[in-house]
Amino acid sequence: MSSKDEILTALDAADVAWQALTALPIHTLRPADQRAVLIRLEAMDKKLAALQHRLLGSMVAGPTPVEFAGAPWAEVLARRLRISVGEAQRRIADAAEPRSA
Description:
The chain is mostly helical.
């Protein structure tokens, strides 16, 4: 299995897990259990942000995108992610900065 296939398979599994999680009746949990779930979701959110940061850093360090006639990365990301060019530029600048673990 190629790296691409492995990554897409893992993303598919994460999507299935997310769908299952969002369908659960979290409102029925006790407040203490709700806080525990919230803490775990926050940790997952930080891991996801770190992965996105690494991916974006890798993308912008590579060749310029050809899909939009050589448009700058900020414009490509703005179009693809449906965010402003300014937000895309902020994300690119953030990805260029080293992160501490």
